[in-house]
Specification:
The complex is a heterodimer of chains A (about 350) and B (about 240). Chain A has helices at about 50-60, 85-90, 115-120, 130-135, 140-155, 160-170, 180, 190-205, 220-240, 275-280, 285-290, 315-320; strands spanning about 5-20, 25-35, 40-45, 65-75, 100, 105, 105-110, 125-130, 210-215, 240-245, 260-265, 265-270, 345, 350. Chain A is of the alpha/beta class. Chain B has about 240 residues and is α/β, with parallel strands linked by helices. Chain B has one domain (about 45-65, about 85-235): Rossmann fold. Chain B has helices at about 55-60, 85-90, 110-125, 130-145, 160-170, 190-205, 220-225; strands at about 5-20, 25-40, 45-50, 70-75, 80, 90-95, 180, 210-215, 225-230, 235-239. In chain B, the strands form 2 sheets. A 6-stranded mixed β-sheet of chain B has the order 6-7-8-3-9-10, sandwiched between helices. In chain B, helix 3 crosses helix 4. The chains are: A alpha/beta (about 350), B alpha/beta (about 240). Chains A and B meet through helix 9 of A and helix 6 and helix 7 of B.
């Protein structure tokens, strides 16, 4: 990939402390990925696989008192004219973050203080949350909520300019009569309209990265594709990188360039969208794709992934054996004694001993 | 030839629209217009339509939560409002989209299930001992494939699929003849969706249930249902 690197996550792990059990739950392990400018990637996995934990970790939104992080989340800011970065924090000119050889600025998100993190959230990295109904403040008008995000991250901007920007954003997310929508409260809008407002808030400051955490789960089937098309179109027009998080593997097919399959906190397969859909390698990916409901299977029993996710507090199991061992239809004796690594096969990466060279 | 278990005849329903300023009724919004269809025994009927088209209102009318403005709903040939409450509870049950709304967050699952099983015996005018109730509970847990460990848990401790199964168990306790499923799979991931659909199909065979399956997913409806009706703007478009 020739474009600029925006985010680099290396050997990243997240653990939550469970006080009643006095144990650690290892929610994410061995996470490695890179995100380039204007690239669209997706994280797919079933409930409890750690998708939202990963999204929250990038923005440091997991509860501080119980969360422990290992590894690095390196962010490369791309905005050259970010007034706050230049004036208030001098991020771009700070020596410790500037690499003269590559002429790039980078910083590890976990080492930043709260004030700087607040500047990054919503300005450099934005997030669209799963439930649009709880994402907005019910006692503030929609327009005020979008203005707030713009005002927080832009110095020396007049009220008129903010208003014009909000109206422009509302029309960009294809909301009819933006002047009327501006004055409405969230309860006066439908689910689809609220999600469009959330997209407008997330894109208000044209961030470098947009994390969309299950943006269509609360919407009906016809709206799902409309919202995703709008999201990917807008992201493309702003050259923003997109991290799409979803449990519906079929939904991402037409919208992203690269897919990561997450299972019980580990990336078990990754590849270009075409590779994942037409040549899935890991038994879990194959099962996940066969589970989807198809009207041609009428009258037949649908294949399911048997049993539940493994216990993520059991360190002996998660670090010594294959994480998919208990549910795998293709397991053999070696899977119980050896932990697989990510093996590369024609650009596709898979964590399964079946592909060990 | 199967008998009709349910007949919906010319049902119309509207809600008043209030003025925000004066808090007075200014007009009414018609949600369902002349809805007519019937459902045979041991069949699944899919009700399709976009959000806000009146699918849930129709479910509520059939479950007797709402009253229609005009028209009638017949269950086994009798108007649903002519049944005593207790009898009707054993005939039609409604399973909501969000299982959380069916589970009291302060009570553990064991208590919730026990309460419902006792209600079942009470409705059938049978006095039972604790051992019979416990036996019944373990039977039901086996049917919905849940382990007895869940009895000690609270709703927030369960996974999405487990919570949906507990909600189904609460509905199954009364052995209804008609089960109305209001978007029961929309919040679940593909693997759980497949598990639940297989499970609904098993129940249909085992208990000879009839289903009204409300969904906005055409693919899902065509896979699971024997008949499908499409509703748009309160009217049936196609059957």
């Amino acid at each position: 990939m020739n474009s600029k690197l925006v985010l680099e996550i290396t050997d990243f792990e997240t653990a939550f402390y469970i006080k009643p059990k006095d144990k650690y739950l290892f929610a994410l392990r061995e996470i490695n990925f890179e995100l380039y400018k204007a690239q669209k990637i997706a994280f797919v996995g079933e409930s409890g696989s750690g998708k939202t934990t990963l999204a929250n970790a990038i923005l440091q939104l997991n509860p501080n008192n119980v969360t422990t992080y290992f590894g690095n989340i390196i962010f490369y800011p791309q905005k050259e004219n970010c007034s706050i970065c230049l004036d208030k924090y001098s991020i771009v000119t700070t020596e410790e973050h500037y690499d003269e050889n590559t002429q790039t600025t980078s910083y590890d998100i976990h080492t930043l203080d709260e004030e700087l993190l607040n500047h990054i959230r919503g300005n450099h990295i934005s997030m669209i949350f799963q439930d649009p109904f709880t994402a907005l403040n019910p006692v503030l008008r929609v327009g005020e909520q979008i203005s707030e995000v713009i005002l927080n991250h832009n110095l020396n901007i007049t009220k008129k300019e903010v208003y014009d920007k909000v109206i422009e954003l509302l029309s960009k997310v294809e909301l009819p009569e933006p002047h009327i929508i501006y004055k409405k409260y969230p309860h006066q809008l439908s689910g689809g309209q609220i999600q469009r407002v959330c997209i407008a808030i997330a894109l208000a400051n044209i961030p470098e990265i947009l994390i969309a955490d299950e943006p269509t789960t609360a919407l009906d089937a016809t709206l799902k594709h409309t919202i995703l098309s709008l999201l990917t179109h807008l992201v493309g027009s702003f050259s923003t990188s997109l991290i799409l998080i979803t449990h519906d593997i079929n939904l991402v097919k037409n919208y992203v360039d690269y897919v990561y399959i997450l299972y019980a906190g580990e990336i078990i397969e990754s590849g270009l969208t075409k590779q994942i859909f037409y040549n899935p390698l890991h038994p879990y990916t194959k099962l996940l794709m066969s589970c989807s409901v198809d009207k041609t299977k009428k009258g037949q029993k649908l294949p399911v992934i048997p049993y539940e996710l493994p216990d993520l507090t059991d360190q002996d199991f998660i670090y010594e054996k294959c994480i998919f061992l208990n549910r795998c239809p293709q397991r053999n004796n070696r899977c119980e004694t050896k932990k697989p690594q990510l093996y590369s096969i024609k650009g596709q990466k898979v964590k399964c001993l079946l592909y060990e060279k | 030839m199967k008998n009709n278990i349910l007949e919906v005849r010319n049902v119309t329903k509207s809600y008043p629209v209030y003025s925000q300023l004066l808090h007075t009724k200014i007009t009414k919004k018609i949600v369902l217009k002349n809805i007519t269809f019937s459902l045979e025994e041991n069949t699944a009927l899919g009700v399709l339509g976009p959000s806000g088209c009146g699918k849930t209102t129709l479910a509520k009318i059939i479950a007797r939560i709402e009253q229609p403005d005009s028209g009638e709903v017949l269950f086994e040939g009798r108007n649903i409002f002519s049944y005593p409450n207790k009898t009707f509870a054993c005939m039609v049950q409604l399973l909501f989209q969000n299982p959380y709304s069916m589970l009291n967050p302060k009570l553990n699952i064991g208590f919730l299930i026990k309460e419902r099983v006792r209600q079942y015996f009470k409705l059938n005018n049978t006095k039972v001992e604790d051992s019979t109730v416990n036996k019944k509970i373990s039977e039901l847990l086996e049917t919905v494939k849940l382990s007895p460990d869940v009895l000690k848990m609270y709703p927030y401790q369960l996974s999405g699929g487990q919570r949906q199964r507990v909600a189904i168990l609460l509905v199954l306790c009364l052995y209804p003849k008609l089960l109305i499923l209001d978007e029961p799979l929309s919040a679940l991931d593909v693997s759980l969706q497949a598990q639940m659909l297989n499970f609904f199909a098993e129940l249909k065979q085992q208990f000879k249930f009839s289903y009204i399956f409300i969904t906005h997913d055409e693919n899902l409806a065509e896979y699971f249902c024997d008949q499908i009706i499409k509703i748009e703007n309160g009217e049936i478009l196609t059957k």
